[in-house]
Amino acid sequence: MHLAALYNPLRLLPPFQQLKNAAIGGRIVSFNAREDQERSFQSFITSGSRYLHHTSHTSIGDLHWEKQIRSSAQIRRQNGLTVLVTGAAGFVGTHVSLALKKRGDGVVGIDNFNDYYDPSLKKSRRSMLESYHIFIVKGDINDQKLLAKLFEIVPFTHVMHLAAQAGVRYAMENPNSYVHSNIAGLVTLLEQCKSADRQPAIVWASSSSVYGLNEKVPFSESDQTDQPASLYAATKKAGEEITHTYNHIYGLSITGLRFFTVYGPWGRPDMAYFSFTKNILQGKPITVYRGKDRVDLARDFTYIDDIVKGCVASLDTAGKSTGSGGKKRGPAPYRIYNLGNTSPVTVPTLVSILEKNLKKKAKKNMVEMPGNGDVPFTHANISLAQRELGYKPSTDLSTGLRKFVKWYLTYYGYNQGKGNSVNL
Ligand SMILES: O=C(O)[C@H]1O[C@H](OP(=O)(O)OP(=O)(O)OC[C@H]2O[C@@H](n3ccc(=O)[nH]c3=O)[C@H](O)[C@@H]2O)[C@H](O)[C@@H](O)[C@H]1O
């Protein structure tokens, strides 16, 4: 089935339909405001995911739980991989898990379902993955015992590490969450990987933000990355150094991917393209930041399907870790790649593409970029990834945003019913 078909939560209609009838007796409910409609549709999805979530009666460590993990980890193609995906209920984690599962790899997810943004979206992603027999363990990567148990049940060949505290500006509000996930969590995970009898190869999400105040464009992997502009960037940069240490001492195979502002269906509500869409539809103002001398900010926005291809290619080309049980047996690869789109677009242009797709004008407040971690522009040089991974982004921002808006309208129920009422 084409991936686009998955973007429609109504694919899951039969169980939701049953739930609907059981929960609210199939009443037709009308809402006056679209916001209420969004909330209700979300709770509908949330209840649906509870309904679908087979683990509600199991607990960590019991037999049924183990069985679900084993079954999710089963490989269904020759020379398939067995991948632990951290942050599997996150935006990129969901898409990568699905791509791996669909080609026959074994996939087990882990996610702490934190509430940095609306957890009901994470639960909906989980429901979608469950319909593809992908199991997500609810837990934190800081839980060393849980990680040890997972590795005891499944001899993972690869770890796709995507769990992180994301968001550039939120780091000023909650700095500790970045240290908890991006530093402490990373070290706990690496400790587990290094001690495994057969060490897995690790591919993980670094960030374009490590380029910080770098002014040399386009950004290349060989450029200096010692001027981070946010704590988020600093923790990602620290992650690159920490993974290097584990590669050096223990022989872990490491690939760090510097993602450039990833967007698309099932995306993150905290990101500009997502929150702008929400506000434009609700007739609320949006704040558009501008650089010094009224220069527009720009980002090398990268579509999720391109990022997924880069992640999968990284897993496929990752050399083996050499150590076992905490002992290095020889040198292992340490790689870093930019995964961007190579064509930066300004934020006002992003807004006008959204306006066109939503058929609605935005109420724009233009304000000077506050000194809260933002950088004026990003622009990826992707020749290394092109050469070594065969990475070739193929979706421009207009095409990608059109797909995102289509998903958004369906997911939040804008396509259902007429006017301001929705059939539940
Ligand atoms: O590549 C990354 O490594 C990072 O990408 C993403 O960060 P950013 O590129 O900052 O994306 P995003 O917040 O969507 O802001 C986009 C633009 O809109 C501007 N922006 C933002 C908000 C707002 O209200 N107004 C505004 O103008 C803003 O000034 C900026 O110019 C991920 O969130 C981050 O987790 C990390 O992965």
TrEMBL record:
Q: Name the SUPFAM superfamilies on file.
A: NAD(P)-binding Rossmann-fold domains (SSF51735)
| Keyword field | Isomerase, Membrane, NAD, Transmembrane, Transmembrane helix
The cross-references to Pfam families, in alphabetical order and at most eight, read: Epimerase
Enzyme class, UniProt record, top EC level: isomerase
Q: Which organism is it from?
A: Lactuca saligna (Willowleaf lettuce)
Question: How is this protein organized at the quaternary level?
Answer: Homodimer.
Q: Which family does it belong to?
A: Belongs to the NAD(P)-dependent epimerase/dehydratase family.
Major site of localization recorded for this protein: Golgi
Reactions this protein catalyses: UDP-alpha-D-glucuronate = UDP-alpha-D-galacturonate
**GO CC, alphabetical:** Golgi cisterna membrane
Q: Where in the cell is it found?
A: Golgi apparatus, Golgi stack membrane
The residues covered by the NAD-dependent epimerase/dehydratase domain are 83-318
Any one GO MF term held by the record is: UDP-glucuronate 4-epimerase activity
Q: What is its EC number?
A: 5.1.3.6
Heme found in the keyword field: no
User: Per the database entry, which stretches of residues form a coiled coil?
Assistant: none
Q: How does it sit in the membrane?
A: Multi-pass membrane protein
Name of this protein:
UDP-glucuronate 4-epimerase
